Amino acid sequence: MNGPVLFVTRKAHFNAAHKLFNPLWSKEENEACFGKCANEHWHGHNFDLYVTIKGIPSVDTGFVMDLKKLKVIIENEVVEHLDHKNLNLDVPFLKDILPSVENIAVVIWERLEPHLPANVKLHKIHLIETVNNSVEYYGPNTPF
Amino acid sequence: MNGPVLFVTRKAHFNAAHKLFNPLWSKEENEACFGKCANEHWHGHNFDLYVTIKGIPSVDTGFVMDLKKLKVIIENEVVEHLDHKNLNLDVPFLKDILPSVENIAVVIWERLEPHLPANVKLHKIHLIETVNNSVEYYGPNTPF
Amino acid sequence: MNGPVLFVTRKAHFNAAHKLFNPLWSKEENEACFGKCANEHWHGHNFDLYVTIKGIPSVDTGFVMDLKKLKVIIENEVVEHLDHKNLNLDVPFLKDILPSVENIAVVIWERLEPHLPANVKLHKIHLIETVNNSVEYYGPNTPF
Amino acid sequence: MNGPVLFVTRKAHFNAAHKLFNPLWSKEENEACFGKCANEHWHGHNFDLYVTIKGIPSVDTGFVMDLKKLKVIIENEVVEHLDHKNLNLDVPFLKDILPSVENIAVVIWERLEPHLPANVKLHKIHLIETVNNSVEYYGPNTPF
Amino acid sequence: MNGPVLFVTRKAHFNAAHKLFNPLWSKEENEACFGKCANEHWHGHNFDLYVTIKGIPSVDTGFVMDLKKLKVIIENEVVEHLDHKNLNLDVPFLKDILPSVENIAVVIWERLEPHLPANVKLHKIHLIETVNNSVEYYGPNTPF
Amino acid sequence: MNGPVLFVTRKAHFNAAHKLFNPLWSKEENEACFGKCANEHWHGHNFDLYVTIKGIPSVDTGFVMDLKKLKVIIENEVVEHLDHKNLNLDVPFLKDILPSVENIAVVIWERLEPHLPANVKLHKIHLIETVNNSVEYYGPNTPF
User: Fold this and answer.
1) Does the beta carbon of A57 lie under 8 angstroms from any beta carbon of chain E?
2) Do D135 and B5 touch (CB under 8 A)?
3) Domain boundaries in chain B?
4) What interface predicted TM-score (ipTM) does this complex get?
5) What is the pLDDT averaged over residues C99-122?
6) Tens digits of residue pLDDT in B20-45
7) What CATH number does the domain located at C6-137 have?
8) DSSP run (H or E) holding F109
9) C90 to E39: CB separation less than 8 angstroms, yes or no
10) A88 near A19, Cβ under 8 Å?
11) N or C end of chain B: smaller count of CB under 10 Å?
């Protein structure tokens, strides 16, 4: 297939509780490292998620991918599992993973990547925890 | 004191966990009413708080109130008690209060109002839970 | 019912085409008055709609009104009729109404007001056409 | 004239330098009161200005007021005098006025009010200095 | 020329009507593919456009390029042709192009690229259709 | 160290005055080039600064870097030197540098880069002067 390569981004969001807590450490070690984010009773965030795919627009539709379909994949694979959940307790695919925004972004990539059609590539997961903190992940082959 | 009356607003924020859950009801009744907001393991939000006061600017300073002082009052009376906390479990002044955004706004008014200087009035508490949902409270004398 | 009165706001949005055009005027008169907004082939906007209601939170739920229900009313009465529509051609309840943002806001009030529960009052329709232009409507009894 | 009363808002902005400094005080007194805002070499802001007028939409146009005309009034009376200016030094109508955001808002009201057409009223000046600080002014007859 | 390479971005915007409609397909095929975006009477959006160029700041001015000049190029080549227009009907350079946000971004690149000075390169067209949907285009040599 | 490479961004901000003025040129030459940005009495902005680092999350913490520590570095090396300052007069490390947003971004990179821990790399300085103008800098090895 020929034509220009474009990057297309779809936004989603979820509201969730979590705590930053390493179960191999004592409560004091966790507080020393994570500060108030280690509060044993949890805190939470409104997470904004931007999923970017890469591809060549179809001559018939002008679309890299039908975003209504991408929306459904993000809902089914990510949002319905994370929205209004406790990221430490409620999510099977986050079990044994410390739910930092970095680790959540990597898991979201792994959840979405197998469900995309063959003619597009997953390009970026951009996950915003607060207006001050966010992460971007470009997949497992990103060089350091 | 004479002069124009202005409304001055200071922003603060806090990230917290909560659930909407009436302890007098069964789990099923809570889920029927509150839906996913009743998740027993909590969820959370980035709350944005806008506090508006009303007064006449000082001739000496041009200020209705020194916002550095208002910031300290909001930090001491509200933010340090709510930020990175569980609103159902961790906050003495929310004990026995269902932490809906409406009820939190009323409590924030009650916390701040006694600490303001005599020459200003508390005008509004604007509390934003998500981009879709927010409340405004103008104090106990607001007519229906 | 006793208790504090709060104002609760729910956001919605719709993307629509319109033109500003008075059918009683010539094309030249329309262009002289409305400028590029009179383009006969239409233009369009992403409209953001904020609906504010007023009431006393329920002791049982902490809610002035269940916002899931308000969302459904706004969807059924407003968004499904305006989203991805031509406001001059496609909307029966805008027939013979010049679709300025002012007139649309008044019609939205009239559409929503009869569907609210008896214990709340519709307080404000805030309709944002662009980051530069918006209107607020507080109902037919607002004094000039 | 009969019909619904609406509030219409137009946004403008200006980037300016200022310092908070009372010339009747010593440098030390200014620093004690205004902190880093008293820096003798100035600091600056991107000011966002929202001007709200009130009126009844015209049957012919659907407009409370042609916002292209309101834009010109705001440009001529406010923005061209304040944008890329030093608010302490460059603005004749701010001479002898301490340029706090409160005082600037009052002066903006006084500049705009005489230029509005007879069928609308100036309702509010909303001036945003930073995401954390803003003021609203509803005119000289606002009760405390 | 030596020195650090920077990327500089200028924002513009335009409000336009369009529909997603393939004239080679039946009305039913268009609706099956494009859903409500195929509404024959059009819909519309506020488009935000971010144009990024790349270059080395001048020693004399500190500028990669005078953004006042970039603003004029964007106005002349893009905004005046798209703002308050129907993207299917009114734009000669979009004739026979299905006006998806992907295709519009490619055309904007092609319109701007020949007008930039020799010492800068066009780097990216970022076109935002709604808060949920946007595209980025880095030019015809982007590898898939 | 093995594992996925992520990009983590922390936001800061500062409010400052500056003017664009080349001291080797006459006043008229400066005005011809820089327009109103050359106003001899300064103007100012709310600058938003986004600092992006790159690294592999720690297995123990889930963090690429403790953002509380990155925040302190940004405060100590950048914000306390630029906030509420005159960028032409008050900042030793901007002496003899024309304070365009491009040049400021390069200096911020140079200030931060030596203070980051060995396991992360500074990736990007994104400096926003107004909603219309911003720059991104990826370091001295960026190819043109």
Assistant:
1) yes
2) no
3) 6-137
4) 0.96
5) 98
6) 999 999 999 999 999 999 999 999 99
7) 3.30.479.10
8) helix F101-112
9) yes
10) yes
11) N
